[in-house]
From TrEMBL:
InterPro entries: PP2C, PPM-type-like_dom_sf, PPM-type_phosphatase-like_dom. It comes from the Bacteria. PANTHER family: PROTEIN PHOSPHATASE 1L, PROTEIN PHOSPHATASE 2C. GO terms for molecular function: protein serine/threonine phosphatase activity. SMART domains: PP2C_SIG (SM00331), PP2Cc (SM00332). It holds the Pfam family PP2C_2. Residues 9-243 form the PPM-type phosphatase domain. This is Protein phosphatase 2C domain-containing protein.
Amino acid sequence: MSGSAGIWRCAARTDTGKVRARNEDAFLALPERGLWLVADGMGGHLNGDLASRLIVERLAELPDFLDLDQQVDWMRSALHLLNRHLATDLTVHNDHPEAIVGSTVVAMLAQGDQACCLWAGDSRCYMWRGGRLFQLTRDHSYMEELISDQGVSPAEAARHPSARALTRAIGAHEKLELDMIRFTVYPGDTLLLCSDGLYQSLLPDTLGAALNLPSPSLALQRLFNQCLAGPARDNISAVVIRR
């Protein structure tokens, strides 16, 4: 068993927003098993909601008798198999062969005070610790490549017409590359998994102020109230986790 029951408190929610016709996001929150994730179906593509739902359904089957390293290996294997399924089987047999069936994913596994975050795409994991907000993940986007690889300023990169184009996602390419970070979670730490519909709408100070509230449910309510008070052009999903 993971030994996570009773250690974690969490709250999770998704919303279509004010503009999109359907919600292509999906989330999973299983604190008793130390497993959480957010998946964002690729906007503008057919069956983005199918892709995100398949990710949630598959990773919900994660065995709870494995240790953390074994769970990470299982999740990697599951996502690689799912990537092959989405990138070849579903895309090739789609009624619109040019359409990609894909989704971002950011997933967190935890056992005791140890946690791992795996991701592909631009859904993010943040940590609120000691009054400071840390972004643990790095976006797999063209904008991020412009900044990190070509030295373009964030402001200039954001103006590029392809700034938000994804460079990695489940189902986007035949070969999948996942990034991972492993870290220790201390009592009082708060983690946020979210789709870009949330963080694109809110300043980092606003995210931090919400995560500083006394409970995950209050933090989540604040985040969604503030997002939905704005344009909310994209689907919004978030999972708030506290040890």
